[in-house]
TrEMBL record:
Domain Myb-like: 6-58, 59-109
InterPro entries cross-referenced by the UniProt entry: EOBI/EOBII-like_plant, Homeodomain-like_sf, Myb_dom, SANT/Myb
Keywords, comma-separated and alphabetical: DNA-binding, Nucleus, Repeat, Transcription, Transcription regulation
Transcription regulation listed as a keyword: yes
Compartments where found: Nucleus
The protein's name in its UniProt record: Myb domain protein 48
Main location: nucleus
Role description: Transcription factor.
Keyword DNA-binding listed: yes
Ranges where the record places region Disordered: 110-171
Cited SUPFAM superfamilies: Homeodomain-like
DNA sequence: AATATGCTCAACCGCCCACTA
DNA sequence: ATAGTGGGCGGTTGAGCATAT
């Protein structure tokens, strides 16, 4: 009922094939209809799992790598202000996910907080981000768009990336993605995270098979699920035009060596 | 070199809320 | 008005890697 936990849904780390499939179906249908995408893609995953993978890993607007000092300070400020509202905090840091910030806080910030409770260490790398900066700079981060969870006008960084830049973020992040930008990048296959490579079906070394797509359940599930001809024709045209799927490389992935 | 410990982060879980029929 | 459903969120876990002993 609630979870609609289908039997045999895959769990655990995503494979390259799964990522490719997900990216392509998000490309086709957008990043809202997760349950639909999970079903029609043939991925044996829940919609939730697909959404999480996209939001936290595959989304082209994501940054990778260490938090910058500005981001660290912002996280500290916003956490002092909002507490563990990670998604809310993440909206103030374009390219960072709530999960990433949450993890970061757990590993870094809490440690720093504990250190602060002890006698002050002059070598603390975080001494510049002490509570004084929190209290003096919060005016820059007044939230005017996120008063309630999932309010109708609320947007996340991966939706628009446009309206909530602070001064710090503008300095640090000049490449704020709009949704149009994101899709344009996908279209042009020129994103940092996802780089189209070649027709993966034609390469023996990277030849990927899609048993789910080829299985009878693929077609039968489509027939039962689809009630929108437009959706159906989207996939049909993709297959017909040999556009689907494109391949990509991750800058870092669990299944790549670097 | 082997083992222990700590750290990072992807992924899952369960709850809650908004939307819709 | 309300029950069903999907999506979003915060909390938590655990595998894999790095570092220390």
């Amino acid at each position: 009922m609630k979870m609609m936990q289908e039997e045999g849904n895959r769990k655990g780390p995503w494979t390259e094939q799964e990522d490719i499939l997900l990216v392509n179906f998000v490309h086709l249908f957008g990043d809202r209809r997760w349950d639909f995408i999970a079903k029609v893609s043939g991925l044996n995953r829940t919609g939730k799992s697909c959404r999480l993978r996209w939001v936290n890993y595959l989304h082209p607007g994501l940054k990778r790598g260490k938090m910058t000092p500005q981001e660290e300070r912002l996280v500290l400020e916003l956490h002092a202000k909002w507490g563990n509202r990670w998604s809310k905090i993440a909206r103030k840091l374009p390219g960072r996910t709530d999960n990433e910030i949450k993890n970061y806080w757990r590993t870094h910030m809490r440690k720093k907080a504990q250190e602060k409770k002890r006698p002050v260490s002059p070598t603390s790398s975080f001494s510049n981000c002490s509570s004084s900066s929190v209290t003096t700079t919060t005016t820059n981060t007044q939230d005017t768009s996120c008063h309630s969870r999932k309010s109708s006008g609320e947007v996340s960084f991966y939706d628009t990336g446009g309206s909530r830049s602070t001064r710090e973020m503008n300095q640090e992040n000049e490449d704020v993605y709009s949704l149009d930008d994101i899709w344009r990048e996908i279209d042009h296959s020129a994103v940092n995270i996802i780089k189209p490579v070649k027709d993966i079906y034609s390469e023996q070394s990277h030849c990927l098979s899609y048993p789910n797509l080829a299985s009878p359940s693929w077609e039968s599930s489509l027939d039962s699920i689809w009630n929108m001809d437009a959706d159906k024709s989207k996939i049909s045209s993709y297959f017909a035009n040999d556009q689907f799927p494109f391949c990509f490389q991750h800058s870092r992935s669990p299944w790549s060596s670097g």
